[in-house]
Design goal:
Aspartate Aminotransferase, domain 2; pyridoxal phosphate (chains A, B); 44% helix; Arc Repressor Mutant, subunit A; alpha/beta; homodimer; four-stranded antiparallel sheet
């Protein structure tokens, strides 16, 4: 399989799943003819190309075959061996590659996506907002943004942060980036040369590990625990290895869900200042708390510019817009501006204006409240279904994931292979580990799949895992 | 002036110009009070923050002063010396910096912007399109794009290129990037290590020069002439310096407007294959022809993957969306995907869907036809006004710029200083020259400024230049 499997996003997946469900439920039997591409596109209210893509992948996966010029027919389960080969091939590859490979495998139960279920986002309301933006800024599509980002947006975010955290801030201290990924990437380019040492939590955000590795960084890790870090260990590493920076995600940490307590935050800033180690605080999940608001961001304890704060709004406000902001000292900002002007010369203005108006609306606050409740319910469903196992995890107070310890005999590689066969994906612990171990840990996201599928899928997953245990447990 | 001058885009500029015109025409006199921010925002139908920004810059430029808590008053021309100092400071800096510094200086006659006048773009129609996209894809804001880019869009572009140029192409051969800037940047990162040699035209696109310089490239130049290149020179440099790649803009070249003839294109591909030099063909102006369509892109002569083709649609279709596509061999695409997954993990899906639907519409074709006519008229106005001088240029058959040779005694640095004082900006030749010379050449864009301002501005510019000539000409 030399072509990477393309995932069109939820539309494509819906078509794929639609066909698979009919086949699995025997509504469509072996050799039955599938609806024509045109017909199904009309029925499902999607583009013909979306249906065609789903059909092609079904064929590739051996679920359907083609006869005549344009007819698709249901394939029998006789082809399961080929599926197995195909999927094994993908699984074998994903051990070496990015999380994105796992996410692209079309399964029914996406526990690998730390994304919000599109159905939980106020899509209809977005639509109205976008129309409003065009009324306010009729020439927005004809205009470029500055490299630093739309000033109106930066002013609005500045007011927000000042109100939330009572910090001193000015719109000039902010940079708008196309998502937190771009922010991390620009920072890695601005600060890291090959063999520079950086400190990472273990485990950590897989894309950040990839980014810093690609810059040639030497990654040293400190463990993150449910109650934060061992600050003596942090200090000792800063002293010994003199890392250029420490990349951290201290609030509803990805993948663990842990939150670093307030008393540690202040101390961390002091250590960072003392040992001249920049702190890059990635705070993507800040608003996704279940009971109480989390402690203030680490940057609010910073007085001299040691902390670079990345706040992404992609996950739960509008993934499709890709808007994040970086708050930092002016010298850092200058480097970042330089990098960004080369990288793309500024994020699209349209996206910034849409985000600006949505972000400052009352509706968004209401949306966030509902989202928190919905996510908490999903977390609880997942935990209920997992209670049947002897697996261990710390129940998070916010965020999108459970970080689960399986018994030592498990290999998450094999578990992934078997799971994908059962249309389930998750993230093996190694992908979150800078040291590439943690192979009996897994990350399960409860945020993407609806409640019914969540229950079904976790049960199915527990069964799959059960069959991989020593004989007496299957 | 430690803060970079921020340009909010055309809205901010309109407010700034509005006030300046009133002052210049003596409608508002010294010590007159300006309208309140709120009032002017209502009158001009812009955001208060936009007016506030314009007012702050007027104050910074010494055009107005502040009294009481929130009143702005007209400043007298007594402050002109300070303006001069401020502007000289900016001008001195721009010699060393990017084109973006020049573009950010708020002037009335922007001959430095190789952008389309927003008033020439079908803004109202865009608005309808965006609403339509939300109806077709209700969850578009809740969904991420793949790294390679929306498949529907790639399929649509593939059909377009196949129809236009009869090439073999597949949607898998395309990558969607956030503008051509990002494409060039990703390519520089994928292919260039410090001290690698690259071939450039002289002059060339200033941002590309900056990008490759930032990667540490050693830039060797070949001259571009109205009739193309000296292919013997090209061959001799490829043989001698073994450049990794040749970055070129062979159709309505920026800044010269020259177009490389068809017979040279085929030969160029042969040379590139022979000497194993990748060709990066940046084709941003392809559709902006005045009389005849230009020769087919160089990539259409390529059979083995020597050419990497960048087609940006930003300039004249929708700058605010920032959409470009790269067509290349699968091994190159693989590298680019890897780079892009780190850089931003995929361009925003919303922008791609909006572009997809607009691009495939009849309206866009009609728009392009009108745009060509409008730009040709503007080119002719500029040329008419310049006929009064003894300056030399080759009239381009398309594109957005005139590339003009001034008599040798001119220093474009000093000319820029004086011009900015007269509210005129342009691009000094050095910024387009990898060798940093060409100081008696200038680039004037006719695309951004309306016809009336074009005439006024060019006349004024000719006067300014006239006063810098030897005494007998002033």
């Amino acid at each position: 399989m030399s072509k990477a499997i393309q995932n069109e996003g939820y539309l494509f997946k819906q078509v794929y799943d639609y066909v698979m469900h009919r086949i699995e439920r025997k509504e469509w039997n072996e050799h039955d003819k599938l609806p024509s591409v045109r017909q199904l596109a009309a029925d499902m209210n999607v583009h013909r190309l979306t249906v065609l893509k789903a059909y092609k992948l079904l064929k590739q996966d051996g679920k359907v075959y083609v006869k005549d010029k344009s007819g698709y027919y249901v394939q029998t389960s006789m082809k399961e061996n080929n599926d197995f080969e195909n999927i094994q091939y993908v699984s074998a590859n994903v051990q070496k590659k990015h999380l994105s490979d796992i996410n692209q495998v079309p399964v029914s139960y996406h526990f690998s996506q730390a994304l919000i279920d599109p159905n939980l986002l106020p899509n209809h309301y977005f639509s109205d907002y976008v129309k409003k933006v065009f009324d306010l800024y009729p020439k927005v599509l004809a205009t470029y943004s500055t490299v630093q980002g739309d000033e109106e947006l930066r002013e609005s975010l500045t007011h927000y942060f000042i109100n939330q955290y009572k910090t001193h801030l000015h719109a000039d201290d902010l940079l708008i980036t196309s998502g937190s990924q771009q922010a991390i990437h620009l920072l890695s380019q601005a600060f890291i040369k090959p063999r520079d040492t950086v400190l990472f939590e273990r485990p950590s955000y897989s894309a950040a590990i990839d980014i810093f590795r690609a810059q040639g960084a030497n990654i040293i890790t400190v463990d993150i625990h449910p109650d934060g870090y061992d600050l003596e260990q942090v200090e000792s590493y800063m002293k010994r290895y003199k890392p250029r920076l420490f990349y951290l995600n201290p609030t509803f940490h990805n993948p663990t869900g842990y939150t670093v307590p307030a008393d540690q935050r202040k101390k961390l800033v002091e250590l960072a200042e003392q040992y001249r180690c920049l702190l890059i605080e990635d705070d993507a999940y800040h608003d996704i708390y279940f009971k109480e608001t989390p402690p203030p961001p680490i940057y609010t304890y910073d007085t001299v510019g040691t902390v670079i704060y990345i706040r992404s709004f992609c996950k739960y406000i509008s993934p499709g817009l890709r808007i994040a902001t970086v708050i930092c000292h002016s010298s850092v900002l200058k480097s970042l501006l330089s990098m960004k002007s080369l990288a793309d010369n500024g994020s699209p203005l349209l996206n910034q204006k849409i985000f600006l108006h949505y972000f400052s609306s009352l509706r968004m606050q209401q949306h966030l409240e509902k989202l928190r409740i919905a996510l908490q319910i999903r977390k609880e469903i997942m935990e209920e279904e997992l209670a049947a196992t002897n697996w261990q995890w710390t129940s998070p107070h916010g965020g999108l994931n459970l970080w689960i310890k399986l018994p030592d005999h498990f290999s998450s590689e094999l578990l992934l292979t078997k799971s994908i066969q059962q249309s389930i994906s998750f993230v093996p612990g190694q992908l979150c580990d800078p040291l590439n171990q943690l192979s009996s840990w897994i990350r399960l996201s409860y945020s993407y799949v609806n409640e019914k599928q969540l229950r079904e899928g976790v049960r199915r997953f527990v069964d799959v895992a059960g069959c991989l245990s020593p004989p007496e447990s299957c």
